[in-house]
Amino acid sequence: xxxxxxxxxxxxxxxxxSANPDAKEFxxxxxxxxxxxxxQVRAQSLRIAAPLSAEDCMVQSMEDASPVRWHLAHTxxxxxTFLLKEQPGYTAFDPRFEFLFNSYYNSVGEQYPRSKRGxxxxxxxxxxxxxxxxVDRELIGRLEGSELSTDQQRILEIGLNHEQQHxxxxxxxxxxxxxQNPLEPAYEELTFRDHNAVDAIHWIPFEEGIVSLGHxxxxxxxxxxxxxxxxxxxxxxxxxxxxxxxxxxEFMDDGGYERPEFWLSAGWDxxxxxxxxxxxxxxxxxxxxxxxxxxxRVPVDSQAPVCHVSYFEADxxxxxxxxxxxxxxxxxxxxxxxxxxxxxxxxxxFAGNWCDQLQASELPVHPRREGKPRFNTGLSGAFGNVWQxxxxxxxxxxxxxxxxxxxGEYNGKFMCGVFVLRGGSCATPSGHIRPTYRNFFSxxxxxxxxxxxxxxxxx
Amino acid sequence: xxxxxxxxxxxxxxxxxSANPDAKEFxxxxxxxxxxxxxQVRAQSLRIAAPLSAEDCMVQSMEDASPVRWHLAHTxxxxxTFLLKEQPGYTAFDPRFEFLFNSYYNSVGEQYPRSKRGxxxxxxxxxxxxxxxxVDRELIGRLEGSELSTDQQRILEIGLNHEQQHxxxxxxxxxxxxxQNPLEPAYEELTFRDHNAVDAIHWIPFEEGIVSLGHxxxxxxxxxxxxxxxxxxxxxxxxxxxxxxxxxxEFMDDGGYERPEFWLSAGWDxxxxxxxxxxxxxxxxxxxxxxxxxxxRVPVDSQAPVCHVSYFEADxxxxxxxxxxxxxxxxxxxxxxxxxxxxxxxxxxFAGNWCDQLQASELPVHPRREGKPRFNTGLSGAFGNVWQxxxxxxxxxxxxxxxxxxxGEYNGKFMCGVFVLRGGSCATPSGHIRPTYRNFFSxxxxxxxxxxxxxxxxx
Amino acid sequence: xxxxxxxxxxxxxxxxxSANPDAKEFxxxxxxxxxxxxxQVRAQSLRIAAPLSAEDCMVQSMEDASPVRWHLAHTxxxxxTFLLKEQPGYTAFDPRFEFLFNSYYNSVGEQYPRSKRGxxxxxxxxxxxxxxxxVDRELIGRLEGSELSTDQQRILEIGLNHEQQHxxxxxxxxxxxxxQNPLEPAYEELTFRDHNAVDAIHWIPFEEGIVSLGHxxxxxxxxxxxxxxxxxxxxxxxxxxxxxxxxxxEFMDDGGYERPEFWLSAGWDxxxxxxxxxxxxxxxxxxxxxxxxxxxRVPVDSQAPVCHVSYFEADxxxxxxxxxxxxxxxxxxxxxxxxxxxxxxxxxxFAGNWCDQLQASELPVHPRREGKPRFNTGLSGAFGNVWQxxxxxxxxxxxxxxxxxxxGEYNGKFMCGVFVLRGGSCATPSGHIRPTYRNFFSxxxxxxxxxxxxxxxxx
Amino acid sequence: xxxxxxxxxxxxxxxxxSANPDAKEFxxxxxxxxxxxxxQVRAQSLRIAAPLSAEDCMVQSMEDASPVRWHLAHTxxxxxTFLLKEQPGYTAFDPRFEFLFNSYYNSVGEQYPRSKRGxxxxxxxxxxxxxxxxVDRELIGRLEGSELSTDQQRILEIGLNHEQQHxxxxxxxxxxxxxQNPLEPAYEELTFRDHNAVDAIHWIPFEEGIVSLGHxxxxxxxxxxxxxxxxxxxxxxxxxxxxxxxxxxEFMDDGGYERPEFWLSAGWDxxxxxxxxxxxxxxxxxxxxxxxxxxxRVPVDSQAPVCHVSYFEADxxxxxxxxxxxxxxxxxxxxxxxxxxxxxxxxxxFAGNWCDQLQASELPVHPRREGKPRFNTGLSGAFGNVWQxxxxxxxxxxxxxxxxxxxGEYNGKFMCGVFVLRGGSCATPSGHIRPTYRNFFSxxxxxxxxxxxxxxxxx
Lengths: 459, 459, 459, 459
Hints:
Chain A is of the alpha+beta class. The first copy, chain A, contains eleven helices and 13 strands.
C-alpha cells in the first residue's frame, strides 16, 4: 500500500525543529546556553585531536584534505575573523594568521595555497592550542559580558556549526592521512563485533504530489537549505536501508568495475585512470576483503552498509542493480528529504541499532545514542551511519540568496559540478544532523563515510 | 500583468510538434520523405566543408574539438555501424574504421584516442568522401527498396539528428581551429551591418504552478528529453531578450573579471589560471573591442547578443547584474522551457530580425528563414541566435531510461558536472531546433555560440 | 695487436675534407657550384614530400616532431630571414611568416608555439610551395648576379646544411606521424630482402694517447664541431659493427626491460611510466617480432642493426652486455671519432653492403651509393645506417664560441641534458655526413634511426 | 706569468690524502678510531635536529627534498640494511622499515614513494630516535667486539659519508621547508656582520698538458671519483674567488633575467615558466634586496658570494660576463680539480676568512675552523662556502665501475642530465670535503648553497 501523501504545499516539518535540542539559535536564547554550547563544541575538537601526536596532526594526504592542526587553527580563525576582529579592545593573536589560516574567503583577502597546508610547521601544536585558548578567552569574556549583538550571536552559531563540520573532516582527513602510511597505524584500538544479518531491502512507496523542501522554523540551518519551497514529485519508492557490503561485493563479483555499461563517462575514465577495483580502503587478502579503519585493518563485515564509495560507484551500482530491481536508481535530494519527513516512527532510526558497528567503532568519540529516536522515519540508518549520495547536482534552491559579505562565500560559490549527500555519517557530530542538511562533494570523492541508498521509479 | 498559467499538469505542446515539418519520424512516414531528408542532411555536411582545403579539414585545436574531416567520417560511421553493418549483403568500406571513427561507444568496442584525431591523415579528404558515397549508396538503395524495418527507420532518424549536431560542431570546431592560426584566416568573406539599437530588457512574469516538461507527441526527440513529467515552478520572470555586448562590456568595465565576489569558486580558478579578461575571440585594439569570426576579425557590435561566454561568465554576469535588477540570475531549464511554450506569438521569433547579424554572417550556409515564425513566444531570440546557459545541471528526468544497446550511450552517460543550454545558435541547423532540446557543455566551455538570458525571482 | 696511435696532437684528418665533394664552402667556390647545390638541396625536400598528400604533410604527432609542410616552410623561412630580408629590393612573401615559421630564434623575435604546429592549415601545401618558389627565385637571382658577399655565401651554406637536417627530420617525423594512425599506412611500398648473417663482434683495439677532436680544414661544419682541440684517451676497444636485432632480442628475452639493475635511474622511470618493453615501432604477433617501417609493418630482421632505441635502452643494453664482454659500454664521442679516423680502408664502409636493407628501403629517396667508400675505417656501418649513441653528454668543446647573432642560437643553447650521437642514419642525406658531426637528442628520444655500437675498456 | 704545469700524467696528489685526518679507511685503522668517528657523525645528525620541533621535522616542501625526520630514519636504515641485517643475532627494529625508509635502492626492494615522505607521521620523532639508538647500540657492540670484517668496515665508512651527505641535505631541505611558511621562521637566531669589500677578480693562468683526475691513495672516496685517469687540458685561467652578490646584481640590473641571449634554451624555459627574476630566497623591499636565511630574512650582503643560483643562472651569468672578461665561462670539473691541486698555499683557503659570513651564520653547528688551511690552493673560497657549478655534465670516468650489489646504485645510475658541482658549501660537514669530490644536481636546482666561479679560455 502506498503511503498517504501528507505534506500540503507549505506545511511545516514541525517535528524536526522541535526534536533538535541543539538547533536553537542563540539569538534570543539564554546567554548560558550559548556559553555551554560554545564550550562543548570547542572542547570536542580538542578531544578528537587528543590521541594524536604532533606529527599526526601535521599530515596532509591530498589537496582536498587538511592536517588536523590546520583544522584546529582554521576553526579558531573563523571566530577571530568574523566575530572578534572588529570587537573593541581585541588584539589579534598574530595578525599574520589572517592570511595563513584563511581557507577560501576572497572577501577577507589572499589565502595561503591549500595544497601546501602540510608544509606549515609553525605555529606548532602547542602554539595552536594557545591560539585557541586566546580566542576562547576573548570570546567567552564577551559572551559572559553580553557584548554580542543579535547578529553576532548568529555568526557565533554559524561558527559552531562550521567547527562541527571540521570535526567530521578532522576524522575523515586523518583516516586518509594515516592510510598513506604503509604501517597502517590506528587512531584508537577497538574491538569489533559483526552485524546481525539484515533483511532484504523493503521498498517504501510514496505518492505523487507537491511537497515542500528546505528548512523552516526556529532551528539553525545554512543558507543553502533555504528558502523553503515547493517541488512536484512523481511517484517513487525508497529502500528502507542502505546497500550492504555483501550486496556491493555481488556487483564487484559480477564484473562491476570492468563493465563500462554501468558507468557515467567521467566515472569510467576515473575507474580506468585510478585503476579502482573496490571501495577506498579495501584490500583483498587470501580471498577475504579487508578494510582499513581508524582502528587499523579489519575484515569487511558483509552485513554493514558499504562505505567509502564515490558518486560514480554509487551510480554504477544503482544501474547494475536495476537489473534486479527494475527502475532502481539513486534518489533525488527532494525524494530523500520527503521520504525522511513522512516516515512512521521507528525505534531504530538514528539510534544506530542496525547501524554499522564497524564504522561506529572508528569514532569512539561519537557513541551512538540509545533510546528514543530523534527522527521518525521508516528509513533505517538514514542518519549517522553513512552519507547517502543523491542523484542531485548541488544547485541553488529557487529564490536562494547567499548571506551578505564574506560568509556569503560559505556555500553558494560551490554550486557547480558536485553532488548532494544526505543524512550524516558515523563521523558527523550528532548535534549537527538534520533532515534538510545538504552535504556536497565531487563525484569522485571517496574519503568521506559515503554510501548508497537506492530509490525506484515504478514502471 | 502576470501571464496566465496555462499548462495543466499533463498538457500536450501540440503547437510545437505540428509546427516542425522535419520532426516526423520516418517510421510510418512516406518512404520518399525519408529519402529526401537523408539526401538533404548528408549534402549539407559536404556543403559546410566545401569552402575548406584538405588542410583546413585536418586541424584539431583541442581535445574537445575534432577535425572537420573526422566529423565527415564519424557521421558516416554512425550509419554504417548502427544500420548497415548487420544488413544482409553489406560489405564494410574498411573494417578498420569501426575502431578509427568510433567516438565514445564502449559497447561497439575500443576507440581511437580522442586527443589524437588531428593526427590521422588517412583516409584523406578524397577517401573520406568515397566512404560517405559508399554508405550513402548502400543506405539509399535499402531505403528505396523498403528494406528498413520500423526500428531501423527510427535509427536512421537518430543518425540524421546526430549528423545535424555534428554540423554545428563542424562550424564551432572549425572556428576554434582557424583561430589558432595567427593569420586569423576567414572561412568565408562577408560584409557586416550593425544591429539596430535594442530596447532595455523587459521582464515577462510567470505565475507559480505545476507545468509539464519534456517532449511528447509524434516528433523526433532524443531520449534525454523524456519522459514528459511534471515540475512545480515558483513565480519567476524572464528577460525578453539576451544580454548584449554593450551590457557585457559594462560588466567588464566594472571589473567583472577581477572581482571574485561574482564568481563560482571553480569559475574564479578558471579565470585566474587562463587569465580570462573577455569573452573568447575578443581582443582590444586601440580602445575598441574586436572579435574573431568565421569572416575574420571585426569590431564587436554593441547591440548584438554577447556570445562565446562560458557558464562561469554567464553566472558571474548574472550575479553582477542582480545589483541592477534585484533577484537577477540565470533561468532553470524548466523555467526556460515553460516560458518559451507559453509565449504570445511574436513575428520576430526565430525569424532572426533581432538576431545577431554578426553571427548569422558567420554561417552563410544557414541563412535565416523569412516570414512566419515557427515558435510562438514572447521571448525574442530564443532560437537560432545564441545558446542560452541555464542554471540547471544536466540530470536525468524522473523515469528517464537510456535507449537499449549502444545508442543508450548517446546521452545518459554524460549526466555529470555539465550544464544545460537551451534554444539553439546561429550555427544550429534550423530543422534541428525544438523547445525541449537539451544541449549540454562543461561550465568552462566557450567555443560554442553560447550567450546569456537572465531570469529573476520576484522579491 | 693494438692499432698504432697515429694521430699527432694537431694532425689534420685530410682524407675527410678532400673526400667530401659537398663540403666546400661557397665562399671562394665557383658561383655555378653554389647554384647547382642550392637547386639540388631545395629540390630534394620537395622530392621527399612528393608521395604525400596535403593531409600527410599536416600531421604533428608530438611536440618534438613537426609536420612535413612546416619543415618545407621553415627551411624557406631560414633563407628568407637570414639572407634575403636585408637584401635591397627584397619584398617578403608574407611578413607574418617571420613569426609563424620561426622555430626557436629569440633574436629574431617571438615564436608561434611549437606544440601547435599541427594546427596551422594556412598557408596550405600549394601556398607553401609558392613561398618556396618565391624565395628560390629571389635567391637564385642574387646568386646568378653575384650579389652575395662572402659572409652571405657562408650563411647560404649553413642554410643548405640546415635544410638537409630537416630532410632527415621530415622522414623521422613523418614515420612517427603515420604510426599514430592505426591503419599503419606506408609512405612508399617496397619489398625487402633479409640481411646475410653477420659475424660475431670483433673488438678493434686503440692505444692510449693525445688525439685531436673536432673539425678542421676547408669543408663545412657547424660551430659545435669546433675548435679542433686535444683530448687524452685511455686505451679502449671498439666493436667493428653495431648491435643487431637478434642481439637486442637476447637482452629482451633475459628480462632486460624488467630488471632495474641495468638502467639509469631516469631510464628506469621512463620504462615504467611508458611501459616500454621493446624498441619503438615493434610489436609481437604470434611469437614473431614485427616493426613498423615507412613501407608498413614487416618482420624484424634478426641480422639488421637494432634501431629506434633511446639512450636509456642503449645504455642498459651495454650494461647487460658487460656480463658477456667484460668492460662493455657505450663509446665516448672522442673514442668514436678517433676510431673512425684511424681505421683501415674498408670497401663496405658507407657503401652500405652490410647496411640495414630494411631501413634503407624506408628511404628510397636516398639510395645507398655504390663503389668507393668515402671514409676509410675498420668500423662497418659507421655512417648511413643508424646513429650511434655515445656516452657523452653534449657539451661545448674547449674554446667553443657560438656564432654571432641569431645563428649563434643554432647549437650552443641546447648544450644541456642531451647526449651526442655519431655517424648518420639511413635517413641522413649522404652529403650531410662527416666524422666530426655531432648530432644530439634527449636520452628518452627514440623516433630517430638510432642504434648501438659498443666499446670496451680493457681490464 | 703562467703557473708551471706540474702534474705528470700519473702523479699522486699526496698532499690531499695526508691532509685529511677523517679520510682514513677503517679497514686497517685502529678500532677506536672507527668507534670515535661513528659516534661523532651520528651525534652530529641529532645536533642538527635539536633546535627543531617535531612539526619542523615533518615538512617536505617538494619531491626533491625530504623531512628532517626522514633523514634521521633513512641514514639509520642504511646501516641496518647494509651492515646489520645479515649479522648473526640481529633483530630488526621493525621489519616494515625496510620498505618505508628505502630511498632508491631497487636491489633492496620496492620503495615508498619519494613524493609522500611528508605524509608519514609514524614512527614519530621519539620512535625515530629509539630506532637510531637501537641501531647504534647494535653496531657499536659489534664494533667494540671486533666482529666487523674488512668489507663491513668499508661499508661502515660509506655509511658515515652517506650520513654526512644527508646532514647537508637536512639543512638545505629544512631551509626550503621553513621558507614555505609565510611567517619565514628562523632555525636559529644569529647576528650578522658584513663582509669586507673584496678585490676585483684575479685570473690565475694554467698551462696546457696532461693531468690526472680522480681520487687516489688511502683516503675514502665514492666510486664515482675513480678510477684516477688522465685528461688533456688546453690552457685556461681560473678566477681566484667566486662571484659576489654585487656582481650578480649587476647582471640582474642589466636585464639578465629578461634577455634570452644569455640563456640555455632549457634555462630560458625555466626562467619563463617559474618567473624567476633573482636567486632563490631573494626579495626586493624598498629598493633593497633581502634574502631568507636559516636565521630569518636579512639584507643581501653585496660582498658575499652569490648563492642559491641554478646551473642555468650560473651559465647565463658567465655568458653575460664574457662581455666584460673575454672568454669567461664556467670551468670544467677537470680544470677545477687541477686548479685546486696545483695552487700555492694560501692562508685563507678553507679557513673561511673571506668566506661568506652570512651563510656561515646559517650553520652554527659547523663553525669555520681557524688556523692552518687543509688544502693549498690559490683559489680563495674553494671549499666550504658555496658549491661551484662546473660546465661538466656528470658522467662516468673512463674505466668507471659501479660498486657491487645494492651500493652500486649509490652514484652511477644518476649519470644522466645533471651537472657536477665542486668544492663544498657552508652546509657541508668539513670532514666530508675533498678536492676530488663530485657533487651533482639537476640544472634547475637552487636549494643547495650553490654559487659561481668563473674560468676563461685565453683568446
